[in-house]
Fold:
Amino acid sequence: MATRRGSGLAAVVLRRLLAVPLVLLALATCVFAAMRLIPGAPAAALAASGSTGLTTEQIAQNEQRIAEALGLDRPWYAQYLDYLGDVARLDLGTSFFGGNSVVGLLAASLPATIELTVAAMLVAVLIGGATGLVAAVRKDTWVDAAVRAVGTVSFSLPWFALGVLGIVVFGVQLGWLPVLGRLPNSLDYVPTTNLVLLDAILQDRPELVGPWLAHLVLPATTLALSMAGYITRIVRASVLEVLGDDFVRTARMKGLSEGGILRRHVLRNSALPIVTVLGLQFGSLLGGAVITEAVFSYPGVGGLLVSGVNQRDYPVVQGAALAIAVLFTLVNLAVDLGYLLLDPRLRKL
Structure:
């Protein structure tokens, strides 16, 4: 029986893994097309950047030479096939502006985005889980009404508005928290993994942790507050549904305390929809990180993406979007596996 369950789980995992390349191909195609449809060309931007003292004809000649050098004068389908071939070889190219390897740029920026997103998710789960549980237990009381009202307001506010509000109140007016960057410029930090907390442990530098956390508080909380409102609603609804089940009434009739019922029956059985929502919302947090990083000048992949779009730096935008998509897909895959482990009935579907 155990072998049969294991093979069923393996088949589900295999189906999920086979879908990953198709998702990434669709994403890569959309980003490739979008970058070539938006106005502006990288060759024109590069030619204009060094155009001081040149005539219009000379600038046009430079633009043509740059387009030829970058392969942008070739038909779009030839560029597209070359791009897919490079991605298949894990070659994301080099930036048009500066000539840096896109893989190197992602290696420098992606850890910061992962730190920000994970921190925001933890804060959102702690706040949303606690408030959702309290609202469900105190259903139809003023506590329930207040929690739902605050959750609705926080969920409705856009990320950039929360970010600007946090900067004005806690950064400018109160001066409690730094509002820009990831670490103080005065701090000597040579990354090992570029994950600051892990580097602080590996390099035995506990003095990194305090400034890092101080810089992380505002952007992470900005991302988390909006998500926490949504999680509150999901947790409240899920817990209320389980509290109405027969086995909960049976537990009460047996004299089990409310705390014991919550710990032993409600939390586990209400976890399935919550896990699914968390996986989906991780993608939203990645999207929100792009905006939040721009507001706080946070050096993550979101800032890299925005900069690439502004400059029409095709390799950077395509590489950054693909990296975010891979991260999102892996998280969704992990959520699917967690869902299957929590509910064995789904392995038969």
Notes: Residues 2-37 form the longest helix (36 residues). The chain has a mean pLDDT of 81.
